[in-house]
Design goal:
Distance between the termini: 32 Å
Number of helices: 13
Shape: globular
Organism: Cirrhinus mrigala
Order of helices and strands: HHHHHHEEHHEHHEEEHEEHEEEEEEH
Strand content: 15-25%
Protein name: Reverse transcriptase domain-containing protein
Pfam families: RVT_1
Largest sheet: 5 strands, mixed
Amino acid sequence: MWQSIQALSDYKPSQPTPTDTNVFFLNELNDFYAHFERDNKETATKIASSTDHSPISLTYSDIYTALSRINTRKAAGPDGIPGRVLRACAEQLAGVFTDIFNMSLAQAAVPGCFKSTSIVPVPKHSSPTCLNDYRPVALTPIIMKCFERLVLTHLKDSLQSSLDPHQFAYRGNRSTDDAVSIALHSVLTHLDNTNTYARMLFVDFSSAFNTVLPSKLITKLRDLDINTSLCNWIMDFLTNRPQHVRSGHICSTTITLNTGVPQGCVLTHDCRPVYGSNTIIKFADDTTVIGLISNNDETAYREEIKHLATWCTTIICSLTPIRPRSSLWTSGREEEVHMNPFTITEWLLSLSHPSRSWGPTFRRTYPGPPTPLAWLRRLTSAFSS
């Protein structure tokens, strides 16, 4: 009964706060959240400016619209300025921030106070026992979120035609249903041919957002012919970022980060997908490699897996401790296919049936398309019910 009442009233119990809120504990948490910084050996340098690419410019109307649309229920960032103040004073502040934002874009430099992040640790369960039991909730300045949305509009216009059509996360009018449909269509169409089968590899990356290297991301953006000035601005935004952990009124020591993309920011979700006869289907960092195999020749599929493993090593991105899963698909009309397992990085891939990804459960055997009589029975059953 109580569960029904809570569901109807949308009751959400308050999250417990860390019991140990001394500075030493918060410093430990801050170092734990920033431990990917130790693996970054790359030097982030800006690209030489090009005369062909002039800095983007924002208008008073752009800034005013962004300020007037601020969600006042969002928590304030490290600057302590609530959204309701920025929204209420949008007309008075729009002119000031227009000058600040345009100067930032022209110089490809983001003010340090705009890049600061305050992390609030939230326990994943009622009795946390280690640092990993605290989920980091990042709070960034609300005014910077407005700035990012304006920049993101220009970035999306340039990236729209260049993004991988098989990336289904953080894109309008796309969902996991679309990813599943493409995966099933690719496999089932291939299985209509004789002497064929398909292999599907489901992988997930560990801390995908925290391991992004700004230098490699900017190289990707330049390869996509993004404005040089905008690339340098994004580089500055992702480097020299002050971060501290806060619990109540107690804060840890501030450290500076040059690795990863802050998950409390607007640009994060569009930066991460850029940083990444076989088909590779992605939903954020959930990735599926589909091998469409004929005549028992898996050469191309296994080469693609090797490329994936090499790419993981290059960008310092590791797979999750939960082992990647490999699935074998056959049409059910041929003899059973016996395949040898293979490895990707340190994981031994063996076949697992069924496999679950993006929500639904994938089965290994495809019995072939329904006959016209089967379709007629389905229609009759649907109309009679």
